[in-house]
Amino acid sequence: MIETVTTPQQKRRFLRGLSHPAVHGIHAELGAYFKAYHNLSQGPWMFLTSGEGQAPLSIGLRGTTALVSGIACPEELASCLSFLGVKQLRTTGLVPAGWVAAEPVVRMVLTQPVVPPKPWRVELEQQPSLFQVSQLLQNSDSFRGESPQAVEEFYAQTCRMVNQGLAQVWAVQHQGYLVATA
Length: 182
Prior knowledge:
Blueprint: E1 3-4, H1 8-18, H2 26-37, E2 46-49, E3 57-62, E4 65-70, H3 74-83, E5 88-91, E6 122-125, H4 130-138, H5 148-163, E7 171-174, E8 177-181
Parallel strand pairs: 4-5
Antiparallel strand pairs: 1-2, 2-3, 3-4, 6-7, 7-8
């Protein structure tokens, strides 16, 4: 049975779901959201896990999007996602019948210090203004068709993750303006 994470035992099961070998890519993102938001009773995220004695499973739900890591009965997972009103599923593992993973999950790993080439006199900014980063993304294809609320949510969530040491944002400046970010 899939249940909300409220007890220490459920928290341990949730974290075990993040360590399953079949979930490359999603575990870091879902783990960071869990660390940043699981203690907030009125936070934007809801976290669910498998029942006692079941295979490890981790689900993060925000709005109508679910991030899923671990193993579950496909029928139970599909029923749970439908009941919760999920419209987008992001996972690297199990995709229940009738569902399509919304977007590929990409895992980028920085394995060594990077010295990027500097075409047209660009400068690497290792701690850019997150407001400027959100403005850059708002004016690019990243938020095309999205509401202003989506940009505000990105900004608030990114600030929280950076302030807790769970994310790092870099940007490239050209003539005093941000032109790229990672």
